[in-house]
Amino acid sequence: MLNISRIDGKLVYIKQPNFDELDFVAELWSEEETMNDVGGVVTFPTERREFWYRKMVDPSDGKNFYCLIYNNDDIPVGEVSFHRFDAEEKKADFNIKIQSKYRGKGYGKEAISLLLSYYFYDFGGQVIYDNVINEKGKKVLQSFGFNIVLRSDSEILFKMTKEKFIELQGA
Q1: Does the global pTM surpass 0.90?
Q2: Is residue 2 within 8 Å of 60, Cβ to Cβ?
Q3: Beta bridge partners of residue 94, listed in sequence order
Q4: With helix as H, strand as E and coil as C, how does 61-104 read?
Q5: What is the arrangement of strands in the sheet containing 76-86, beginning at the earlier edge strand?
Q6: Are 15 and 6 in contact (CB under 8 A)?
Q7: 69 - beta bridge partners?
Q8: Which of 9, 30, 45, 149 has its CA 20 to 30 A from that of 163?
Q9: Structural Rg of the chain based on CA atoms
Q10: What is the pLDDT of residues 98-153, one digit of tens each?
Q11: What is the third-level CATH fold of 7-124?
């Protein structure tokens, strides 16, 4: 079971949500200002939540790991996760969203570090990818140390390896 109680940083902590915290997920995904640069608003009706929760959070399908990001006032400010873990190649896809009103406070960078520490050191991942379509996301991943693997007119594929992450942590 992938369940963790909480991983603490200096500005934020991440934790897997309880089922009743999915209202925040619905709010986050439905907020136009937050979602317009990551592909648009996503509806999250209550009838879809139980299936999604079992796949992504508890007990999880072993390929997905999802956390909410909380600031030190215990206010949810976003989400961070990995998806579609391939156990043979030890790779997954990365996701992070910070609610628009909380951006620019360093929450995203620290949440990335907390999730990747779990992914590389505890979960056993070796590489993680993220397809990014927006300028802010591109800048955040580049400033964190992700490498560009592939570039098209509409998106950039970023990659972080365990070796690179360990190197960045030591810097």
Answers
A1: yes
A2: yes
A3: 82
A4: CCCCEEEEEEECCCCEEEEEEEEEEECCCCEEEEEEEECHHHCC
A5: 7-8, 12-15, 65-71, 76-86, 91-98, 127-132, 156-161, 147-151
A6: yes
A7: 14, 78
A8: 9
A9: 15
A10: 999 999 999 999 999 999 999 999 999 999 999 988 888 888 899 999 999 999 88
A11: Aminopeptidase (3.40.630)
